[in-house]
Amino acid sequence: MSITLDQVTKHYAGAPVVNDVSLDIGDGEFFVLLGPSGSGKSTLLRAIAGLSGVDHGRIALHGRDVTHVAARKRGVGLVFQNYALFRHMTVAENIEFALRVRHMRAGARRQRRQELLRLVALEGMDQRLPAQLSGGQQQRVAVARALAHKPEVLLLDEPFGALDAKIREELRRTIRQVQRELGITTVLVTHDQEEAFAMADRIGVMNLGRLLEMGAPHDLYSRPATRFVATFLGAANLILARRTPDGIQMGANTVAAAERSADVEEREVVAVVRPEEVEVAASREALSSGYLARGVVAEVVFTGALESLRVRLENGVQAPLLAQPDGAAGASLLVTRTQHEQRGFEIHPGQDVAIGVRRVHVLPTPLSSFTACAASPALADALSRQPLLAELAVRMKTRIAMRAEPQLGVPEAACAADGPFVGTTALASQTDCAHRAEWLLRRGAQDLLVLPEHAAVPQRVLIHWMGEGSRSATLAVSASVLRHLSAEAVYVGIFPQQSARVRAQHGMRDLLDARSEAQLAHGLEMRTELRFGDVAQELALRLAEAPAQMLIVGVTDLTRFAERFRGLLDGGQWPMLIVYRGSP
Amino acid sequence: MSFRQPSVLPGFGLTFGFTTFFLSAIVLLPLAALALAAASLHWSDFVHVVLSPRALGSYRLSFGASFLAAAINLVFGLIIAWTLVRYEFPGRGLIDALIDMPFALPTAVSGIALTTVFAHNGWIGRYLEPWGVKVAYTWVGVTLALTLISMPFAVRAVQPALLEVQRDLEEAAETLGAGRIYVFRRIILPAVLPALLTGFTLAFARALGEYGSVIFIAGNLPMKTEITPLLIVIHLEEFDYHGAAALGVVMLGFSFVVLLAINLLQAWGRRRHVRAAH
User: Fold this and answer.
1) Which of A12, A121, A175, A56 is CA-nearest to residue A489?
2) Are A388 and A457 in contact (CB under 8 A)?
3) How far apart are CA A100 and CA B141, in angstroms?
4) Residues A236-279 pLDDT 10s
5) Strands, DSSP E only, in A447-564?
6) Which residue of A60, A127, A541, B92 sits 20 to 30 Å from the alpha carbon of A437, by its own alpha carbon?
7) Do B168 and A102 touch (CB under 8 A)?
8) Structurally, how many domains does chain B consist of?
9) Is B177–A80 a contact, with Cβ atoms under 8 angstroms apart?
10) Is B217 a domain residue?
11) Other CB atoms within 10 A of residue A38 CB
């Protein structure tokens, strides 16, 4: 491996900017770090270059641990967005800078310079000053300068940001060509998904300091695992649907899913439909794909090669739509059509059309939507405005439904509301909360979010499960929650006090297993801690250690649930997410 | 030259007129009067006044101490400006404001304060005395006073230039393998050199004209610790206006030559850059 990052973490003013990032980049690979501004991608690149230190974790280049090695001894080449050329030096002096530092002889320097200038197609520009070159030429000089000392790794920090579209494309091609010719491992940071697609062997998408997903451009685009990647890599319609044995049920109609899933349990899921996978036709019969609903064309925008439509859904699927790529409210689908499709069926605003879906991809996330549950509609409404819940819903681009259960917590009473519990159920933390939680879990709520009135977005999330049956589900839920928080994840393993000595070794292995499963199956990086004693007591102690913490706990057995968790739940200060997976 | 050039201020003609008028009324006219007063002196008298041993001694002190003060400020001004620009620390605003204090203080006050501290029984002078170091009433004291009053010029000239040196440039040099000293020598220094020279020039010019603070700490021994401005005042007190004017003209001439030389040096540096480009 050329570049190996292991749990790299960097804090600024207490908040993690880079959060537990682990990553392997192979020899000669062109890796693109993609993310919105403030996602931590540039900080991560600077950490690899050695320009900023890390608070936790290790960085290795070609098997050499460089975590504490100064930038000038790392042997990397770095290209900045604003070129950072030495303005008082000529092109030749700029390129030879690294060679001069290394006391290379003048003849050898000149030869290397000529080589590099040829590589970036700037022959004969040796004696110019940077100010006399165009932006694109300056960036070429910067690339040549960064390659002069034959670094093992080339790092590019938004190198095309300051250039106009045409030059950008040309320079992209040059850099890709140079990279192939030299076979140099390259990391490029960008916020431009098109650029990432065009250049990358592999893309890593970052948000809120976390590396969310990694993969080949096509795989990431067609099979994203997270809402963020689905909407950040190109436009996407996110739809709350229901997975049934027959396929993906959206509103009244069922469409076949793009891929078979091992998880066959019937539940609410988040479906991704790319705008180009939506078909519009005059009638249901004219569709060549699975029929979804009828709709009215709200907007037609001509964008050159493609035509972009917004279609308001008329029947069947209404509220279920979550994210609109441009943030517009209302249940409307984004559709793009090629010239060919446009010629086949002309469309005008206001037209009534039948909508079909060619391909549906289902996100593996277990958190689809929220349902605020309370004893009365007014209380449920108040709960839906709880700051943490509201913030999570916004970040997850999902809805908060309301459910009133007047008998909430009354033993033996049945559910008043119709239908099963959908998505994650939210419950206010108050006296008798433990009983209410148990009541809900016994009546079909699987994921239960218990919220103190003023709890805000946490900075650390503690994860624990009781019973192996809930491990996988707890990890999946934790991964999903943590993707939307800029928080540190800590797995707390707890063993009974009396067996401390016997279980210590065993416990360590459990921790490592948990960590690697979280990493492999859910892309979640977490710290691990081992404690001995009573579970609820130890968790309460750990929570009391610092403010702004949240607890995610996996449960397989509800016997004595209320009794055991009374201390944590009744009037608790901390938000707590209970993941219940009863053993069959 | 065309007087029709579009700009925010009304009319090139008008502003150009103001410029020449003000320069003439405030700078050129008094200087001309000075030259005229000196010209009314007979040539041999003129030479006698400006080349007297006492006058020569005062030139040496005035120009030497001013040059030294400017040189000291060149180094320490850069360090102070660097600290203020590059680091965040509590009280930075306060220190930044303190830099300008020598501007605001009446120069006589600075002179008296310095003398109090550095006299043989002063706060610091007391401890220097046993070592044989005398500050007050020697050329060292003169240099010290001149350093104090010209310090803001050096700092304020370099500060904006340092702000302009982007962190990126240093980081780029670092990733290319350069050590700290190399980065300073090859990247930072060339970028701030013109500003440093400007700061030096301003500090030198200011020190040369200084009078108030120096006379308290200098002791004013003829030939030894007497600066040229003081000699001029002495001539005036003896109602020897022409002699004073003659010394003034010499100083003016010297200063002009020095300032011109530094300006030419800067212009040459700039031209060299541009030429290297072609």
Assistant:
1) A56
2) yes
3) 45
4) 888 888 888 878 887 777 887 767 666 667 888 888 999 999 99
5) 447-451, 460-466, 488-495, 527-532, 549-555
6) A541
7) no
8) 2
9) no
10) yes
11) 15
